[in-house]
Amino acid sequence: MNRLTSRTITVFVTLALTPPMFAQVPTRIPTHAAASAQSPTAQPVPEDQLGRSTPYGTVKGFLSAAQDQDFVRASKYLDSRESPERKKEIARELKLVMDRGLRVDLEKLSRKPEGSAAADLESNQETIGVAKSGSHTLDIVLDRVQRGNQPIWLFSTGTLLSVPNFAKGLEAPWIETILPKDFVESRPFGIPLYRWISLPVSVLLGFAVACGLVWLISLAFRTLLRGFITRYDLKVPSFIGPLRVLVFTLLMQIVSRVAPTLVARLFWERLVMLLTVVGVAWLLMRGLDVIADSIIERIRLTTVPGRIAIVHLARGVTKSLIVVLSLLVILAIEGVNTTAVITGLGVGGIAIAFAAQKTIENLFGTITIVSDQPIRVGDFCKVDGQMGTVERIGLRSTRLRTPGRSIVTVPNGQLAAVNLENYSVRDMFLCNHVIGLRYETSADQLRFVMAEIRRLLYEHPKVQSESARVRFVRFGSSSLDVEILAYISAPDYVAFLAVQEDLLLRIMDIIEASGTGVAFPSQVTYFAKAPGLHSEKTEAAMAEVRRWRDERKLPFPDYPPETIRQVENKLQYPPDGSALSGNR
Q1: Kind of pairing, strands 380-383 and 420-422?
Q2: Is residue 304 classed as helix, strand or coil in its secondary structure?
Q3: d(CA 493, CA 428)
Q4: Domains and CATH numbers, the chain
Q5: Edge-to-edge, what's the strand order for the sheet holding 150-155?
Q6: What is this structure's pTM?
Q7: Which of these, 111, 151, 308, 522, could form a disulfide with 34 (CB 3.0-4.6 Å)?
């Protein structure tokens, strides 16, 4: 590579690493917060128009004036009795010393009128930092001096006396020695032209390098850990965005160290801290999503899908905490008193709690539902008279799919307070019917019907024999009412309907075999002689009851236990001829 090409690349890279400082510092620094933080014995200090009431305000104000090339205003921050022209020159030299040799975090400077009162200094002095040039050092110190009836902070006389000699030993930034003079001497808005160019170049170059590095890292990760990624279903693309931010932040950290001025270094250092907070928070939330999605997929394969709502709730709360903590860290970086912010959040939280009572009620309702688990996703239930299948349990509400295929949304606060009937957790289904027989039915016919229905319930393999009950309960307005009650073992409601249908059809056969019939629930007027009951079947039923009585086997009030044991589960179900009879 020839010398011209090497020089061109060197200039391009150097431009990318020397950004300008766009964030201008206001001349006047409010000091209300600093004045309010005085010690109990300190007296209120009047506010200085140039912000010199605190060490922080003095350094900020000087850097702002010097950055604007307003050295007349910058000289007002110096404790010097030199001529105005000489003070301007000293201010220029002090800026040069601070730009090239001083590293300081302005946010750590005292914002109190009395200063930090360090143990190794007098109470009216404050050390800003130590400037370094080779083996030489210079302490940058502020003095608290009285001007009229107002104490202010100024750069100390001792520091200013050493500034000229220290400044002579400083060398110009190497980049200014290789750039054309027009890029160095041209100063739009008081900033050298090459610094204006360096900001977009450094940002674009840094972002491009960050994208390339992250792509290489992800490629290596996929190649080396392919089996691990497949086994745990890791979503690598989810982390690319935050990783780009963090790598870009690392590159900007390099830029902050080689920035040519103190103000530029402070700007880049603060930007690096803010990007670091954003990148870490983003990375944590992406990692949280990957973990939560993996847990949800595993829960879907289990018999407790209701726990999915717990995962959603935990993810939402954790993300909120990450956001709040990140905002607090950003405010602390910006110099905001986070104690006051937290106190304000507490007071504001009370007001928000009153304004959002329903939302908070629904949130606690969600916690109750996911902890007690009265319902789960997929359960068929009835909520306050509304029936449906649970499709989703969210943070605020629960969704039910009704038998009409519409969606009903029930707030979780209401769901936790109303009566809830869950049909999916039933171990048995209740079969309860009242059958009305015609009033022409004789007592023995009625006994025959009830006895045969009891036998049917005992014999049926899907009926819980100990729960079976058949009783003559009343003389109805147009019928003799017989109540049938039994619990049926079935896995779901559809299977229960099939068993109940089989029982009702068999009961119809018993009623027909007894010679009687089901009464109509209405009044009948006969205009001709009624055909009456079937005489032969009536006589046969009555003869069977007489035989039971003669043999002392009349099954009233119930069958004897030994007979129940003999006939229990003896009936064929499904019956012969059924399409399901071959699946027994």
Answers
A1: antiparallel
A2: coil
A3: 10
A4: 12-190 (no CATH), 430-522+531-583 (3.30.70.100)
A5: 125-133, 136-147, 150-155
A6: 0.47
A7: 111
